[in-house]
User: Which sequence fits this backbone?
C-alpha cells in the first residue's frame, strides 16, 4: 500500500532546476543527489548539513563543483563557461569606457555652455565616437579596439591564461576531483585541495564516500547513514538510533553491518566504474594537450573565426551607438538648447551597472549565437556528453545505495512494513510488485534533459526475485553536422533501464548479473508520424557466481545487441570450464557509435582502439590446457596441476581503416592444494591509418597456505606505445 507521495524543488536558478520526487512508505526519509548537494549550495540546514557532517564539506563541495563545471560546458547558455573572459572585458573595456564617456560629457557640456556647437553633435563627433573606436570597434580600422583585442584572445594560444583549453581543463580537473571524492581521498593543503599526494605539508586527509579504512570498512558510508538518520528521523527515535550506531557492538550496528555486506558487491562495482571514469577523464585531458585530438579540433575552428569575432565586436558597437542615439533624442526632448545650464550628466542618471549590463548582455548574446561557439560546443559534447551522463548516473547509484541502507535499517529496526504492494493489474499481480520508487529530474533551460528513477521491485520468475533497478531518460539534440548518433538537426529521446549486480538465485545459486536495455526515439516535426523508434539495445553481464551444467560450468557470460537507424551490432563473450580445460572468447559484428560493446567482451582491446565509430568485426578466443594431464597423464587436481594458456584474436574496422590482432600466453600451477601461481602476458597491436598503437599487460598472482588464512600476492605491469613507449608497474 502506498502511504506517502512527496515532491520538492531542490535547486532553482535561471538555467538549472533540480526536482526530486518519490512514492514511499510513510515515515521513511527520502535521499537523493539533488536533496543533498543543492540544499548545501543554498546554505540550507537539515539533511544537507547532516550530509556535510557525515561526508565532510570538502567531499560535498568537490562533487558539486565537478558536476557544475561540466554542466557549464554542455549548457547551451555559454555565459557561465566564458565568465572569466566576460569579467575581464568588464574590467578592461566596459567599466573604463563608461567612466570616460561620463567625464567627456562634462567637457562637451562646458564647451556648449560657452556658446560652443550643438551639445550632442559635438559630444558624439569629438568625444564619444573616438572612445567607442578605442574601446569597442573602429569601423575605419577594423583590426583596432580593446574589445576586439580581448575577444581575439580566443584565437590566440589555446593554453593561455584565459584560453579555451584552460577553461576546459579546469572543469575536467574539477570532474576528476569529483571522482576521487567518491572512491579515493583528498589532501587538504595551504594551497587548496590536491587529489595526488602533494610535495607540500598536508593539513588534512579527507576520505572519499566509498573509500575503505585499514580494516576494509567503508566508514564514510556509515558516517553518512548515522548523520542522516539522526537528522531525518524525528527525536527521540532518530537520536536513539544514531546513538546506537556509534556505540559499537549493538543490534542496530550488526544490522547495519549486514546491510553493508549485502550492498558491498554493488558498491564495489560502482567503485570500479568510478575508477574507470577517472582514467577516461585523464585521457580526455591528454587530448587537450598541444597536438592532441581536441586541441587540434579547437584550433581548426578558431582559425576560421576571425570574421565572426569581428562581427561580435561590431554588434556591441552598434548597441552602444543605439544607446547614445536614444540618449540624444531623449535629451533633445527634455532639455531645449537654451537651457544648457539645466542639463544633467546622463552618466549620472544612468548608473554604471545599468549601462555596462546592457553592453555585456549584448556581448554574451552575440558570442553565444556565433557559429564558431556552436562548433566548439558540438566538439565538447562529442567528447563529454556521454561521460557526463555516466558520471551523473554513477553518483546517483551511490546515493541510491545509501538511500536503501537507511530505509532498510529503519524499517527493520523500528517498524514492520509490508514488503509488497497490493495487486494493481489482475494478471500482473502474480509476477510484479513494487515497494518504492524515487526520482530526480534535471532541467537545463526549458528542457528536461534527464529523468532518473530508482526503485525496489519483486518479480515471480518463477521464484520470488527482489532487486533494485533504475530507469533513465535523456534528451539529446544536434544543431551541428551529423554524426553516428544522429543527423544534423535531429532531436532524440533516449531511455535506459537496468539493474546492477542483481541476484539470480532462481537460475543458479550465487549467480549475479548486470542487465540493461536502451531505446531511442526521433522527433520529426510535421511528419505523419512525429515520433518514431530510432534504435533498441540491450546488455547482460555476469558479475558473480557460476552457471553449472552436467559436463561443464560457465563462469563468465556477457552479451550486447543493438538494432536501429545508427547502430546495428551483436557482441557476445563467454568463459567456461570443461573438466580441467578452461576456454573463453568473444565476438563483435556490426556498427557501433562507441567502443562500449567491444569493451564489454575485451577491455584490453577496447583500450587500444580508442573512441569513435566502429564498423567491422572482432573475434578472440583463448584456452587453458592442463598439460600435466594431457602430456603426463596425471589427473589435474589441486594436488598437482600445471596448465598452459594461449589465445589469439583479430579485428578490422572500416573507418581508418583500423586492423590489428590480440594474443595471450600464460602458465599456471598448483600443488598440495595449498600453493598456486598464475601468470600471463596479453598483447594488442592496432594499425589505424598510418599510425601504430600497442598495448600490453603482464599479470602475476598467487597464494600460499589454506584460505582464508592464506598469503596472497598480485602484480600487474602495463606497457603502452602511442608515438612513444610508456611502462606502468
Assistant:
Amino acid at each position: 500500500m502506498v502511504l506517502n507521495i512527496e515532491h520538492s524543488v531542490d535547486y532553482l536558478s535561471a538555467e538549472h532546476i533540480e526536482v526530486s520526487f518519490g512514492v514511499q512508505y510513510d515515515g521513511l526519509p527520502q535521499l537523493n543527489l539533488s536533496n543533498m548537494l543543492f540544499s548545501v549550495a543554498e546554505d540550507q540546514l537539515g539533511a544537507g548539513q547532516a550530509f556535510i557532517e557525515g561526508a565532510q564539506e570538502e567531499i560535498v563541495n568537490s562533487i558539486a563543483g565537478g558536476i557544475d563545471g561540466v554542466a557549464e560546458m554542455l549548457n547551451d547558455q555559454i555565459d557561465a563557461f566564458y565568465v572569466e573572459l566576460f569579467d575581464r572585458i568588464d574590467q578592461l573595456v566596459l567599466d573604463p569606457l563608461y567612466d570616460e564617456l561620463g567625464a567627456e560629457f562634462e567637457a562637451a557640456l562646458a564647451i556648449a555652455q560657452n556658446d560652443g556647437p550643438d551639445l550632442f553633435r559635438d559630444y558624439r563627433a569629438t568625444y564619444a565616437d573616438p572612445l567607442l573606436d578605442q574601446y569597442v570597434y573602429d569601423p575605419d580600422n577594423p583590426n583596432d579596439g580593446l574589445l576586439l583585442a580581448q575577444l581575439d584572445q580566443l584565437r590566440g594560444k589555446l593554453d593561455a591564461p584565459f584560453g579555451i583549453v584552460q577553461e576546459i581543463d579546469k572543469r575536467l580537473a574539477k570532474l576528476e576531483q569529483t571522482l576521487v571524492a567518491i572512491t579515493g581521498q583528498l589532501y587538504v593543503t595551504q594551497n587548496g585541495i590536491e587529489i595526488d599526494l602533494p610535495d607540500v605539508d598536508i593539513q588534512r586527509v579527507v576520505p572519499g564516500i566509498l573509500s575503505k579504512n585499514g580494516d576494509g570498512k567503508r566508514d564514510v558510508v556509515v558516517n553518512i547513514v548515522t548523520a542522516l538518520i539522526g537528522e531525518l528521523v524525528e527525536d527521540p527515535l532518530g537520536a536513539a538510533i544514531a546513538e546506537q550506531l556509534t556505540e559499537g557492538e549493538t543490534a542496530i550496528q550488526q544490522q547495519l553491518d549486514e546491510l553493508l555486506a549485502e550492498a558491498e558487491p554493488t558498491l564495489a562495482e560502482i567503485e570500479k566504474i568510478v575508477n574507470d571514469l577517472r582514467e577516461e577523464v585523464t585521457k580526455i585531458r591528454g587530448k587537450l594537450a598541444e597536438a592532441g585530438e581536441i586541441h587540434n579540433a579547437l584550433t581548426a575552428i578558431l582559425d576560421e573565426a576571425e570574421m565572426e569575432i569581428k562581427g561580435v565586436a561590431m554588434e556591441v558597437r552598434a548597441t552602444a551607438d543605439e544607446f547614445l542615439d536614444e540618449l540624444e533624442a531623449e535629451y533633445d526632448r527634455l532639455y531645449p538648447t537654451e537651457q544648457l545650464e539645466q542639463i544633467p550628466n546622463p552618466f549620472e542618471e544612468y548608473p554604471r551597472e545599468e549601462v555596462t549590463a546592457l553592453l555585456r548582455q549584448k556581448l554574451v548574446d552575440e558570442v553565444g549565437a556565433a557559429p564558431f561557439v556552436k562548433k566548439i560546443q558540438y566538439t565538447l559534447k562529442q567528447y563529454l556528453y556521454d561521460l557526463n551522463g555516466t558520471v551523473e548516473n554513477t553518483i546517483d547509484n551511490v546515493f541510491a545505495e545509501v538511500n536503501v541502507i537507511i530505509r532498510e535499517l529503519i524499517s527493520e529496526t523500528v517498524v514492520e512494513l509490508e514488503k509488497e504492494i497490493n495487486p494493481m493489474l489482475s494478471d500482473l499481480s502474480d509476477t510484479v510488485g513494487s515497494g518504492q520508487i524515487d526520482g530526480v529530474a534535471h532541467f537545463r533551460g526549458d528542457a528536461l534533459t534527464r529523468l532518473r528513477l530508482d526503485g525496489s521491485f519483486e518479480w515471480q520468475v518463477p521464484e520470488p526475485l527482489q532487486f533494485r533497478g533504475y530507469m533513465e531518460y535523456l534528451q539529446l539534440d544536434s544543431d551541428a553536422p551529423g554524426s553516428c548518433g544522429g543527423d544534423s538537426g535531429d532531436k532524440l529521446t533516449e531511455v535506459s533501464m537496468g539493474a546492477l549486480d542483481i541476484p539470480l538465485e532462481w537460475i543458479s545459486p550465487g549467480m549475479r548479473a548486470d542487465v540493461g536495455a536502451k531505446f531511442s526515439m526521433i522527433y520529426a516535426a510535421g511528419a505523419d508520424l512525429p515520433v518514431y523508434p530510432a534504435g533498441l539495445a540491450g546488455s547482460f553481464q555476469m558479475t558473480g557466481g557460476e552457471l553449472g551444467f552436467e559436463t561443464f560450468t560457465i563462469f563468465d557470460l556477457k552479451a550486447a545487441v543493438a538494432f536501429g537507424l545508427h547502430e546495428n551490432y551483436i557482441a557476445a563473450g563467454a568463459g567456461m570450464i570443461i573438466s580441467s580445460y578452461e576456454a573463453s572468447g568473444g565476438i563483435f559484428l556490426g556498427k557501433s557509435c562507441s567502443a562500449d560493446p567491444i569493451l564489454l567482451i575485451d577491455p584490453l582491446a577496447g583500450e587500444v582502439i580508442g573512441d569513435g565509430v566502429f564498423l567491422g568485426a572482432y573475434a578472440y578466443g583463448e584456452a587453458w590446457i592442463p598439460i600435466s594431464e594431457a602430456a603426463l597423464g596425471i589427473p589435474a587436481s589441486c594436488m598437482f596441476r600445471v596448465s598452459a594458456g594461449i589465445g589469439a584474436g583479430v579485428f578490422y574496422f572500416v573507418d581508418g581503416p583500423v586492423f590489428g590482432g590480440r594474443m595471450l600466453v600464460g602458465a599456471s600451477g598448483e600443488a598440495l592444494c595449498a600453493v598456486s601461481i598464475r601468470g600471463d602476458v596479453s598483447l594488442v597491436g592496432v594499425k589505424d591509418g598510418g599510425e601504430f598503437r600497442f598495448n600490453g599487460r603482464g599479470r602475476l598472482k598467487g597464494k600460499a597456505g589454506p584460505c582464508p588464512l592464506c598469503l596472497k600476492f598480485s602484480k600487474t605491469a602495463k606497457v603502452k606505445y602511442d608515438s612513444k613507449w610508456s611502462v606502468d608497474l
Remarks:
- The longest strand covers residues 447-460.
- The chain has a mean pLDDT of 76.
- Residues 593-729 form one domain.
